[in-house]
Amino acid sequence: MQVKKELRYEDLDLSRFRKVFHPDEAAIEKEILYVRQKKLQWERGVIASSGDVITARLQSELQRFNREGVKITLGLGLLSRELENALIGHSCGEKVTCSVKGTSVTVIITDIQHKVVPPLDDEMLVEENLPGVTDKMSFHTYQVEKQRDEAATQLAYEIREEVIKEILTGSCLEITETDYQHWVDLQMNRIEWLSRFQGLELSDMTPSQISARIPVSSYEEIAPFLLGGARETMPLVALGSARAASDGYTVSREDYDNWITQCATDWHCTPEEFARAEPFELYEMNALSDYYYMGFFRHLKSLLVNEEDG
């Protein structure tokens, strides 16, 4: 397998896919509120309002509303939305009578706890341990870049097939049927090992057992399905390998060993056992394919222009 000629995605005219990127400020405000709410405090309230937690004594012919020391979060409707709405605007010590499903309920408010969400400060943001975030401005920048990444991911998903097809048409890759079959064999070995580890033999599995693991319903369909995956994946492996060689990037054995160790922990087996399902060669192929795609993804971010530049 080798790349004789590569049409680089940097050399493609992708201007037809250019989009104006609009940061979602409302979503950023929600993230800010989420950070602030981690420092939520409760203080004694004077007038009951929605969201407050009150303690009350209930008196009624209905057993459910004849209780002492009941804690009610106003606005949730967990006890009775009618009753909770009737308590809003009243103060501690007041006696409130209302009708719930046609029955009179008397409530004596004995305590009101009001939640206080403190204003955002830099210390809160530093505690989030987000890369490069030290203050409000850098937090905003981080959130905007996060949204840009999400938008680029969506754009990549939308145009990936069309652009990759254009790249492959303009490139010259030498990938043999043996190369494709080798990828199929590696994947089949992986599936068979994982099945045996679960006490199943792949060739004897029922259609429902197979379809729960792979989007096919019979053993005979597995190899053709994997071959289709090989024809999609191997060109990216080849391009990723060429790009990695040009960039001086190599797939790390140390990263592989750490990954195998983590997978072995998840599967409750030894690293040596799990490595039979995921040999370094398969890990390397996936890593090279990902390396190419991540470079492609980063390039697509340049197609997302700010509104003022659009």
Order of helices and strands: EEHEEEHEEHHEHHHHHHE
Report, as a whole number of angstroms, the end-to-end distance.
42 Å
Number of strands: 9
Low-confidence stretches: none
- So how many helices? 10
Query: How large, in whole angstroms, is the Cα Rg?
Result: 30 Å
Description:
The chain has 310 residues and is an alpha+beta fold. It folds into 2 domains: 2-15 and 146-309; 41-116, Chitinase A, domain 3 (Roll). It is built from 10 helices and 9 strands. The protein has helices spanning 25-37, 81-87, 122-127, 136-170, 177-197, 207-211, 219-247, 253-267, 271-277, 280-300, and strands at 2-5, 19-21, 41-44, 53-60, 70-73, 95-100, 103-116, 172-174, 304-306. Strands 3, 4, 5, 6 and 7 form a 5-stranded antiparallel β-sheet that branches. Helix 8 packs across helix 9. The radius of gyration is 30 Å and the shape is elongated.
SSE layout and pairings?
Layout: E1 2-5, E2 19-21, H1 25-37, E3 41-44, E4 53-60, E5 70-73, H2 81-87, E6 95-100, E7 103-116, H3 122-127, H4 136-170, E8 172-174, H5 177-197, H6 207-211, H7 219-247, H8 253-267, H9 271-277, H10 280-300, E9 304-306
Parallel strand pairs: 2-9
Antiparallel strand pairs: 1-8, 3-7, 4-5, 4-7, 6-7
Helix pairs in contact: 4-10, 5-7, 7-10, 8-9
Features:
Chitinase A, domain 3, alpha+beta, elongated, 2 domains, 310 residues, 9 strands, two-stranded antiparallel sheet, five-stranded antiparallel β-sheet, 10 helices
